[in-house]
Amino acid sequence: MVELFLDGGPFMYPILLLLLGGLALVVERFRSLSQSQADSDGFMKDLSKAVKAGGSKSGMAVCKGHDGPVSNICKAGLDKAGKGADRVEKAIENAGSLEMAFLEKNMGWLTAIVAIAPMMGFTGTVWGMIGAFEAIEAANDISPAVVAGGISQALLTTAFGLVVAMIIQICQNFFSSKIDGMVLDMEEKSIELTDLLRSAK
Length: 201
Description:
By secondary structure, this protein is an all-alpha fold. It has helices spanning about 1-5, 10-35, 40-65, 70-80, 85-105, 105-140, 145-200. The radius of gyration is 27 Å and the shape is rod-shaped. The N and C termini lie far apart (about 70 Å).
């Protein structure tokens, strides 16, 4: 494997850096999204009981005892309870936007790596083909032995760039699916909260 990497030429190193950077982002996203996941159904049951028993202040106490985007948007909504439905909905909307930004942090960099890695591989391919034609010109011969090195380098960089892009793309799709599910859950729970506050009046 190391020998194949070295045979790929100078463009293998920036592609390797893209892979390492992408994997670092994948680890960061995995840890962050795992920490953001919570039992939102159980949380909403506790919140509903607290609000019905003691109002918004009791609900705030429940929110402070939980982590995650759902508890954060509920905390923002409860903070405006009693100031009108419009203020509550606006607070929930603003908190939801902040949570969305947090959930999607660094996803753009993963997208960039998915696009750049194969392009870097194709650039290495062109570089390898240039080397092959220079070898033909220098030897004044088109035998396979003369062009094999350049063509091998060209194919290796292409393959490495595509493999890196596929690895990061799979991880990105996994994270996007998790984020979509969490956003849907946030929307459902924000509706539940507004209904709860209306019924508690």
